[in-house]
Design goal:
5-stranded parallel sheet; alpha/beta; 164 residues; 35907_t:CDS:1
Length: 164
């Protein structure tokens, strides 16, 4: 299950990717059941007790994590002794980013490795309830589009792993 605070473009792109995945996926038999895999958690402090871990998506390795409460999120994972993985997305795709995920065949090698890294981390830490966080578009240009595409590919890969 994924959760997000719905406060930044990373949060919103998670929801958009998830609903696009459900809407466009012919293998999803029960859309209501699938939609329950994603929840909205508003920042009331309880999510730190509920989530198993946090995935922080950044635009680059030089992003200042003290911007947009990203540093706060990192500190809270440390305080509550929860696993936290930070990944940096510079460019997700080699080809045209306007194409739909199902039409895009060429992920750059770094993105494929990052998807595998996230999946390995989820499995290693036995994560069932994952908080996804990251910065706002105003401090991290392109983060919405890159996260939307990345999460779309991650969801597709997760589904492939579950059906095999």
């Amino acid at each position: 299950m994924f959760c997000s605070g719905c406060q930044t473009e990373v949060d919103r792109s998670l929801f958009d990717a998830f609903f696009d995945h459900i809407k466009n996926n012919k293998n999803v038999k029960n859309k209501n059941q699938s939609e329950s895999l994603l929840t909205v958690e508003f920042n009331n402090g309880n999510k730190w007790k509920l989530t198993d871990a946090t995935l922080i998506i950044l635009s680059s390795s030089t992003f200042n994590t003290n911007l947009d409460r990203t540093g706060f999120t990192i500190n809270m994972t440390e305080k509550h002794k929860k696993p936290c993985l930070q990944i940096c997305l510079d460019k997700v795709l080699v080809n045209d980013t306007k194409k739909k995920i199902d039409q895009v065949l060429d992920l750059n090698e770094g993105t494929v490795k990052k998807i595998d890294q996230v999946l390995d981390w989820i499995e290693k830490n036995k994560i069932e309830y994952l908080n996804v966080a990251g910065p706002r578009e105003r401090t991290s240009l392109g983060i919405f589009e890159n996260t939307l595409l990345f999460m779309g590919f991650l969801l597709k890969k997760l589904e492939e792993l579950q059906t095999n």
